[in-house]
Structures are given as C-alpha cells and as structure tokens.
Amino acid sequence: MPVRIQSNLFDIGAEIEAFQSGRTDAGAMVSFCGIVRQSEDAPLSRMLIEHYAGMTEKSIRKIELEARAKWSLVDCLIIHRFGELEPGDPIMMVATLAEHRSDAFQAAEFLMDYLKSRAPFWKKEFRTGGESWVASKESDEAALERWSE
C-alpha cells in the first residue's frame, strides 16, 4: 500500500512496471496520472503545491484503507507531488490492482476523486496576469459525493 508524497519527478512507465511486475494475483490494473495543464486563456508559467507533511500522508492512507474496504483490491499505489511544477509535469498518480476490472476501475476513480477534492494540498497558479490560489470546484465535490452511498 505505497503512498508517496514527494517533490521529485516520477517516471510513469517505470512506476507502473514496478507496481505490477511479477504479480499473478490480479487480473486487472488501472492507472491514472494527473498532469499540469496549460490553458489558452491565461498562460500558466508554474504551479506551487503545498501540504503539511505527516497530515497529508495520514489523510491519504485513511482514504486508501477506505478504498480497500469498499473494493476487493490486491494492491494500490498513490503518488502525489508538491513543490513547483510546470505545465506538462505529472502531479499525481493512482494505480490499482484487483482480481477483476470493475474493482480496479471503481477504486481508482474513488481515489482520484478524493485526491482532487479533499486531500490536504493547496495549489497556487502563476500566470501572465498574476497569481492565485486554486479554489475547489463544484464538479469535483459532486464527483466525490457519489461515493457516499
């Protein structure tokens, strides 16, 4: 149950290979990587992601355990970066292993929804016209709400 909060860049392909290599106990693996996106309306020069060490890991481990309780997972991997990132940089990665694809897909989506809306990270965008903290979106909250059934 690896949960890693790190500033350094990670190699998506290498992470996936290491995660599933030699595993014969799973029939499905799902992975997702979030990437710093450039927008056309106000060019992004960089993004700063902050967190509270210790609290962030504890919060993410708790939600990872919740995912394991809801779905039959063989394993999962969660990586989230902090510090200064540029457009095109990977921000986070979630990978799930399960016997069946439904559990792998649902657990990965649940973890991604949590990371997007509730994980204790603060993001500040630096654009040509200035800088601003990223506010939560109603759509992200709505995506998380569907899991509370």
Name the descriptors.
4-stranded antiparallel beta sheet, single chain, alpha+beta, 4-stranded mixed beta sheet, 4 helices, 8 strands, 149 residues, globular
Rg, Cα atoms, Å: 16 Å
**Which strand order does the major sheet show?**
1-4-6-2
Number of helices: 4
State which percent range the strand residues make up.
25-35%
Provide mean pLDDT, rounded: 92
Q: Please state the structural category.
A: alpha+beta
Termini, distance in Å? 25 Å
Instruction: Report the strand count.
Output: 8
Major β-sheet annotation: 4 strands, mixed
Give a structural overview:
There is one protein chain. With 149 residues, the protein is of the alpha+beta class. Helices cover 34% and strands 35% of the residues. The protein has helices at 12-20, 55-70, 101-117, 138-145; strands spanning 3-6, 28-35, 44-51, 73-81, 83-85, 90-98, 121-127, 130-133. The strands form 2 sheets. The protein has a 4-stranded mixed beta sheet with strand order 1-4-6-2, with helices on both faces. The chain has a 4-stranded antiparallel beta sheet with strand order 5-3-7-8, with no helix packed on it. The longest helix has 17 residues, at 101-117. The radius of gyration is 16 Å and the shape is globular. The mean pLDDT is 92.
